[in-house]
Design brief:
Elements lengths: L7 H25 L9 H27 L6 H9 L9 H4 L1 H14 L3 H7 L5 H4 L14 H4 L2
Length: 150
């Protein structure tokens, strides 16, 4: 297909992770199989541990070089998706109640509205309530390191 980009690096990383998980099972069983301070499974334990370290190190270098190097966040798009997210309806529960918040979300989804537009349409909140200090704000739902400092 013209223009198709194969996700080879992501697939390769997933395969490496599957192998490392298998190695982890082997290491776990080998570690649990030692008796009386003598573990005859140390060679397989060490081999799988070192194998996992090498696999992860090589895969991360390749993943960085061929996949994530140069990736830039589209902050404008992220902000738009965040501010228009219907999940923000949970902010409204304490203000307008669960039932009305549910109606607001369903109306917004059905008509392709933002939560603020839906609130106004259903008269769940006034224009003043949804403007200045809107309860519909993602930044009010998250804790930042600044908010943890007294």
């Amino acid at each position: 297909m013209p223009g198709k980009v194969n996700p080879t690096q992501c697939e390769a990383m997933t395969m490496v992770c599957a192998q490392v998980m298998g190695n982890h099972v082997t290491v776990t069983i080998a570690g649990a199989s030692g008796h009386f301070e003598l573990n005859v499974f140390k060679p397989v334990l060490a081999k799988n541990l070192l194998h996992s370290i090498r696999l992860l190190a090589d895969a991360m270098v390749s993943f960085e070089d061929h996949c994530i190097s140069g990736v830039q966040a589209n902050e404008e798009r992220i902000s738009k998706l965040l501010t228009e997210s219907l999940m923000l309806v949970t902010c409204l529960n304490s203000k307008i109640g669960y039932d009305m918040a549910s109606k607001v979300a369903k109306n917004a989804h059905k008509k392709g509205l933002t939560l603020k537009e839906s609130c106004l349409e259903l008269q769940a909140l006034t224009g003043e309530e949804v403007s200045a200090k809107s309860p519909i704000a993602a930044n009010r739902m998250i804790l930042t390191s600044d908010s943890l400092i007294p």
